[in-house]
Design a protein that fits this description.
The protein has seven helices and four strands, in the order βααβββααααα. It has helices spanning about 10-20, 25-60, 100-110, 115, 120-145, 160-180, 185-194; strands at about 1-5, 65-70, 80-85, 85-90. Bound molecules: zinc ion.
Length: about 190
């Protein structure tokens, strides 16, 4: 079962806004955040079945559990996962299906949280690159049209080290995705590092 709650916590929105812009947000910002929250929820619901099956196919991991997505104003330009079931999202839809892809990226972080937290910083870059290839590349190809790797219009927004690492492991990734076996993304990570 998969259950995702999309919520706006006005105090959190005010707090993040103040941190970034050093002033209180106008009422308009809170209304736009509520509207944005409904937009994300609608877009996610429309694609949930498709995304869930693609997620399993690409990562070898079932997308299930209960999660909370705290939605922020897209002008805040921030997103992260906080723990195994909580996400913060505040980026606009940069390209078609980007919101769904972004949420799926954070969900993969949530689901692999226990494994990820035991890794060293260097190891985390490698695993994070696999998350990137799985979701920001392969899921994007599935939802939109197949394109070249690293051709996204927003590639510049990602951390350089993430992209460099992902480029290095792309041959292994393509080998992994070409083989229909029972390996999952964590198995692949272990193969890469040992
Ligand atoms: Zn990430």
């Amino acid at each position: 079962m998969l259950h995702i709650q999309f919520l706006v916590d006005k105090e959190k929105v005010r707090g993040k806004w103040f941190l970034k812009y050093h002033e209180k947000p106008e009422e308009r910002i809170l209304i736009e955040t509520e509207n944005f929250c409904r937009e994300i929820e609608d877009k996610w619901k429309a694609k949930e079945t498709l995304v869930s099956s693609a997620f399993k196919k690409i990562t070898g991991i079932e997308l299930r559990g209960e999660f909370i997505v705290f939605v922020f104003h897209p002008d805040l330009e921030m997103a992260e996962y906080l723990d195994a079931r909580t996400i913060e999202w505040g980026y606009k839809e940069f390209y078609p299906n980007y919101l769904v892809i972004g949420i799926a990226h954070e969900l993969l972080h949530c689901i692999t949280h226990d494994f990820y937290t035991k890794l060293t910083d260097d190891e985390k870059w490698i695993f994070h690159s696999l998350v990137y290839l799985a979701i920001d590349e392969d899921l994007r190809f599935l939802l939109n049209s197949k394109a070249e790797y690293f051709s996204s219009s927003i590639i510049y927004t990602y951390h350089r080290k993430l992209i460099v690492t992902a480029k290095n492991i792309l041959p292994k990734w393509e080998e992994y995705t070409a083989n229909t076996n029972s390996k999952n993304i964590i198995d692949l990570y272990r193969e890469l590092s040992f």
